[in-house]
Design goal:
The protein is an alpha/beta fold. The protein is 52% helix and 9% strand. The longest helix is centred in the first third of the chain and has 19 residues.
Length: 479
């Protein structure tokens, strides 16, 4: 691909214009202002930057963006080679174009990946600039179906997304927990999309796995300080699937980042599959800080909400498949039969769409029953929580939940507390130390004593045995 130097520079000017329009002026000036064109040769474009850190950062986060901008000019380009220019000392560096992360660490690009096109979902400039996890463009507030089980979570997420830089933070952190397929990730990505729709705030969405990977990679490439500063310089940090956060050093860094952001008045939004108190693998300090914000549970999807979700999925499918139609009786059957989670509902619509299109047959109730039979699962028993046990026991014995967690040793409190501990051991999968911690920080031996005490009593005290069985029924029937 031999072209004259003048033509190369003209094209390079147009590529830089595309790049500036794509990522925005702030991001462009931070990462691309000092990138130079060396040459265009065969199917490769050779670019250079002044520091190793800048090279590593651009390689990690902007492979597709740079290549796409070049391919708009030269479709035959399939590779970008990025190198570090020979160091040249300047009397005074231009501060406006030097990123904070670069100033902190310009030492190493060991193990830096080759700059190639990688298929990723397009995201906003702020999000990409910080190496966020991929976002699904379908997961916005506009496509989220609200209902009784998620009203509070949706309202809190919207309040966070609509905030502006400098506004007082109302819920910090906002912690959303729910089972699989109930909409946690949808809400978190909606917050990210909405928050990044302008240029005022930096909003970063990361899975716990990506956070761990980023921290470990920064340690390996000696850019840990830059990694920390980059995270603590954002306005809204969104972390998904926190239950997967592992490693003592990674958890310690997450705790420091969490504290730094909250103390600085920056917003933190977190999602997990259980409440903070149940994340036993996390350090107690982290759990305590998480619980200090707004903790919201997204409940199971009711039949009415499931029907609305199904209708919305059909409407979305009809945008690309205008002839696709699902009769209301079929949707009502699916809403009644598929109770597990929202992903199963979406899977059911996808199956009906595929069957209808591939076999050129209309969707009928008989066809739906046949195609989704493996998605119709038996109703799972309700998962009993320690908080439920404490509430039901306190109500039964006319004491308060705070009495059960207190150090009081009066008879009217000790027996209900022992019953509650016994039920926690028999109806949940929690360990003795965890149960003790949830009952006012008691030692596991105290819990073991309570369990053995109630076991011995119910074997010979009919009245107590009946009381315990009644409590079990109330808990398992969600009374």
């Amino acid at each position: 691909m031999a072209i004259t130097e003048g033509v190369e520079q003209d094209r390079w000017t147009r590529v830089k214009g595309r790049l500036r329009s794509s990522v925005g002026e702030d991001v462009y000036s931070s990462w691309f202002a000092r990138m130079d064109l060396e040459r265009v040769q065969d199917e490769s474009v050779h670019l250079s930057v002044p520091t190793r850190f800048l090279k590593s950062w651009i390689q990690t986060h902007y492979a597709e963006r740079v290549l796409t901008c070049w391919q708009a000019e030269l479709p035959d380009v399939h590779r970008i080679d990025l190198t570090v220019r020979t160091p040249m000392r300047c009397a005074a560096p231009v501060k406006e174009t030097k990123a904070p992360e670069e100033r902190l660490n310009e030492r190493s690009d060991r193990g830096a990946p080759e700059l190639r096109a990688v298929a990723t979902v397009p995201v906003s400039a702020n999000h990409e600039a910080l190496g966020g996890s991929p976002l699904d463009p379908r997961l916005t507030f506009g496509s989220f179906i609200g209902g009784r089980s998620n009203t509070l979570a949706l309202a809190a997420a919207r309040q966070v997304a609509e905030g502006r830089r400098g506004d007082p933070v109302m819920f910090n952190p906002l912690y959303i927990h729910a089972g699989v397929g109930l909409g946690k990730t949808h809400l978190l990505q909606a917050v990210t999309w909405a928050g990044n729709s302008g240029v005022e705030r930096k909003v970063l969405y990361l899975t716990a796995e990506k956070f761990m990977y980023g921290f470990v990679a920064a340690l390996k490439t000696q850019t840990a300080l830059a990694f920390k500063e980059a995270l603590r310089g954002i306005d809204v940090l969104v972390i998904d699937d926190l239950q997967f956060l592992q490693g003592k050093s990674t958890q310690a860094e997450f705790c420091h980042t969490l504290n730094a952001l909250i103390d600085a008045g920056r917003q933190v939004v977190i999602a997990a599959d259980r409440p903070p108190s149940d994340l036993e693998a996390l350090d107690e300090r982290v759990r305590s800080r998480l619980a200090g914000g707004l903790v919201v549970e997204m409940g199971s999807l009711g039949e009415e909400l499931r029907l609305e979700i199904l209708k919305s999925r059909v409407s979305a499918a009809k945008v690309h498949h205008a002839s696709f139609d699902v009769p209301l009786p079929v949707l009502e059957y699916l809403a009644k039969a598929i109770t597990h989670n929202g992903r199963d509902l979406e899977g059911a619509i996808n199956r009906l769409l595929a069957h209808s299109k591939l076999n050129a047959q209309p969707v009928t109730l008989e066809m739906a029953e046949r195609e989704v039979r493996d998605l119709v699962r038996p109703q799972e028993p309700r998962r009993v929580k320690i908080e439920d046990i404490q509430r039901v026991v306190a109500r039964q014995y006319n004491v308060s939940r705070s009495d059960l967690l207190s150090s009081r040793r009066t008879a009217n409190v000790v027996r209900p507390r022992q019953v509650a501990m016994y039920l926690a051991k028999t109806l949940t999968l929690r360990s003795l130390p965890e149960i003790g911690r949830r009952f006012g920080g008691r030692d596991h031996t105290t819990v073991l004593h309570a369990v053995r005490k109630i076991e011995a009593l119910v074997s010979k005290d009919i009245a107590l045995s009946d009381e315990v069985e009644l409590l079990k029924r109330q808990l398992q029937e969600n009374i």
